[in-house]
Amino acid sequence: MEFKGSKSPWKYNDNITGDVDDSTGAMVACVFPIYDENAEEMKANAHLIAAAPELLQVLQLIVSYHDDGNRSLHREDLEMARKAIAKALGQQ
Questions:
Q1: Domain tally for the chain?
Q2: Which pLDDT score is estimated for 14?
Q3: What mean pLDDT do residues 33-38 have?
Q4: Domain that holds residue 31
Q5: pTM of the predicted model, to two decimals?
Q6: For residue 62, is it within any domain?
Q7: pLDDT over 90, % of the chain
Q8: Residue 2 belongs to some domain of the structure
Q9: pLDDT of 55
Q10: 6 within domain boundaries
Q11: Do residues 9 and 21 lie in contact, with contact meaning Cβ atoms separated by under 8 Å?
Q12: Within-domain flag for 30
């Protein structure tokens, strides 16, 4: 199945409104903190949203390997998964 959403990669702009933009600079999502003390939660949510295309890609890859009868991932694929996880956690 092909993703029909905005072009990736998506990027969190680390601004007060929590904007997540696609590769063309168009806004994909905007995450607002409910209270000032929830600013870190807002950032975490925005990072997760920004990583969504990469996370989907890696999950599709893992499922395709499984469906093809291959039970092991290649080193490059594991690295792609680690990068997507790091992006989702705001570490990239």
A1: 1
A2: 81
A3: 71
A4: 11-88
A5: 0.81
A6: yes
A7: 35
A8: no
A9: 93
A10: no
A11: no
A12: yes
